[in-house]
Amino acid sequence: MRVLVYGSGQLAQMMYLAGCPLGIDVQAVDVNSDTIVHPVNKTLLESNLELAIESADALTVEFEHVPERLLEQAAKTSKLMPSIEAILVGADRVREKRLLDRLSVPNCLYQIVSDIEQLDECVAKLGDKLIIKASRDGYDGYGQWRMTDIAQLDELKKALSALDLNAVPLVVEKMLQFDRELSLIGVRGKKGEIKIYPLTENLHHQGQLHVSVAPALDISPALQSEAENIFTTLAEGMEYIGVLAVEMFQCGNTLLVNELAPRVHNSGHWTLSGSDTSQFENHLRAVAGLPLGDTVAKQPSAMVNIIGCCSFSRDLLSIPGCHLHWYGKSVRDKRKMGHINVTADSYISLGEKLEQLAQYLPLEYFPKLLKEAARLKQSYTTPC
Amino acid sequence: MRVLVYGSGQLAQMMYLAGCPLGIDVQAVDVNSDTIVHPVNKTLLESNLELAIESADALTVEFEHVPERLLEQAAKTSKLMPSIEAILVGADRVREKRLLDRLSVPNCLYQIVSDIEQLDECVAKLGDKLIIKASRDGYDGYGQWRMTDIAQLDELKKALSALDLNAVPLVVEKMLQFDRELSLIGVRGKKGEIKIYPLTENLHHQGQLHVSVAPALDISPALQSEAENIFTTLAEGMEYIGVLAVEMFQCGNTLLVNELAPRVHNSGHWTLSGSDTSQFENHLRAVAGLPLGDTVAKQPSAMVNIIGCCSFSRDLLSIPGCHLHWYGKSVRDKRKMGHINVTADSYISLGEKLEQLAQYLPLEYFPKLLKEAARLKQSYTTPC
């Protein structure tokens, strides 16, 4: 069994590591050179993409911004999972909004803008606190603007008028007062079976995920169930196969979908330690037509991203339940270099371990860590 | 950080998979061709062994029967962990017995035979129920003979007289009435720190391990502690670095060491699911000088070897807590093709899962499975 993953970053690498024990050979498509590379050491495995597609049993993606010509070629084989439509929903906020509306999935109030003058209409309809997103090629906070005061409107118009809004319209959303950011990772198999991980709480900084905690604290059964209904509606509505990540805002007892990622997702990395079956293994099981694995959380877990730094003490491994996942990339500003998974018997112990962890890390790169450790230490939520 | 493993089988492969997330590049030495290969797909990485040794940070082994010329070359670098002496102890039963005696570690009564006529003396000293083992190159029950009645002595002498006993003496042991076979897997780091997994119970069939259960049932704290003392004596006595497996017989409240394996061991495969840190990760952490990981058993676990067969239903993955580890080898009689790890919340549930598992497997290859499932289902031991 061979699975070809479009994209050759850390997600393909972690799929490779999950595939080996299942006897699934995961290979990666370098979408810049149209060649097939080893997902870990990136050596060339095959230079003929068509041959590789032919010999693969399943095709999938590690990111949604795969060039459309490649996706179209892949879609012709009927081996591509999830479908090209589902992948493009993740790559294009206009498609995403249309899907959410079609399936009546609650999401943030928005307007689509393909002419800069429509911004005035947005203000009239959505108010003067706006988040403006390019509909395509946005990733980790790039291609986003904020307006917090009407006085910024003219300046914004000037900045945005440089863009070709006909080709890439803007999605303008009312800035939301939300309690926190959650995500739900789930997986749908070839026969339509669905398994869903518990809601994960995500802490962002400058548009990038820094810390995840799972299961998210203080989630009522009703809220988890609402999230699962949203997942099921989306996955069934797209006839989705594989892992799908749904990013949401919690506002009181309500969930609003912010974004879909048609792939394994950074906020699901905790499943490598904290669940019986990781999101990587479950994605492969799904596209390979194997039974899906258990998604129950075994213990409270945290995932700490290592962003833009490579110098820290490996003695962090002395913390019980602490595991490093290093991606082997050269360091760049804001680049995700790896992550650290931590599990504990309780949220309080998890907070203590994050506090210990902080001692081994250059904290300027981990701006969310200590505060989250303190919050967990004061938690009274019963684990799992 | 690069670790070179002598041997390119499944143990090197599982070390590779454990090494990746730590940023440790594990490469394998094919000891038949003296070349360096990728531990998973076995492609050639380097044909010059000396260069590879030079560029590696640590050298280790996946099996003890590495040709001595290679071990001696490796030992010259001072990067070989464990030491050549420790590896040879695992490869030579005479050395092994000498070590056990020197460190006063209880083991089975024995005589060393380098002349076939000494067998009579063995009978006089050890009785007429004997296990006779070639001192070298014995693996999975090969090179072993049994005498259960004195009438077999002449026939045995005839068979054994074909061997060069001067070059490869025999170790003759009194056949033991033991309750069960246990093993203890532990790891010792570069600074002498030690972490030990709980005792594992092992079920063999025709000299091969078929099923392991961990933690072994009904182990008193005193017995676990006795086993840990034995481990510590051996590991410190050899100034051992890495994972060491100690196979033992339990006779009432006593443990007798049967065999040492200076490496990760089949009876420790359950740690991939059942412990926070797998034996593979801990071996790499040790030889890389990293802090050792937690060895506590999180849940009752079973490991079921897949031996000599490759045709079974992958629907076994539908059992929660059930994970396949496939080695990707071509099938041969008696060959270890992979293993299945199963975890559960209790031993009774573990037994039920093994019973379910049996429905997906061709039982002629799994002669120990159903009986062990039944035994676990009747267990009243509190887990972990």
UniProtKB/TrEMBL annotation, chains A, B:
Pathway: Purine metabolism; IMP biosynthesis via de novo pathway; 5-amino-1-(5-phospho-D-ribosyl)imidazole-4-carboxylate from 5-amino-1-(5-phospho-D-ribosyl)imidazole (N5-CAIR route): step 1/2. GO terms for cellular component: cytosol. GO terms for biological process: 'de novo' IMP biosynthetic process. It catalyses: 5-amino-1-(5-phospho-beta-D-ribosyl)imidazole + hydrogencarbonate + ATP = 5-carboxyamino-1-(5-phospho-D-ribosyl)imidazole + ADP + phosphate + 2 H(+). Residues 97-288 form the ATP-grasp domain. It comes from Alteromonas pelagimontana. This is N5-carboxyaminoimidazole ribonucleotide synthase. ATP binds at residues 93, 133, 138-144, 173-176, 181, 204, 258-259. The keyword Zinc-finger does not apply. Pfam families: ATP-grasp, PurK_C, RS_preATP-grasp-like. It comes from the Bacteria. GO terms for molecular function: 5-(carboxyamino)imidazole ribonucleotide synthase activity; ATP binding; metal ion binding; phosphoribosylaminoimidazole carboxylase activity. The keyword Signal does not apply. Homodimer. HAMAP family: PurK (MF_01928). Belongs to the PurK/PurT family. Its EC number is 6.3.4.18. Keywords: ATP-binding, Ligase, Nucleotide-binding, Purine biosynthesis. Catalyzes the ATP-dependent conversion of 5-aminoimidazole ribonucleotide (AIR) and HCO(3)- to N5-carboxyaminoimidazole ribonucleotide (N5-CAIR). Catalyzes the ATP-dependent conversion of 5-aminoimidazole ribonucleotide (AIR) and HCO(3)(-) to N5-carboxyaminoimidazole ribonucleotide (N5-CAIR).
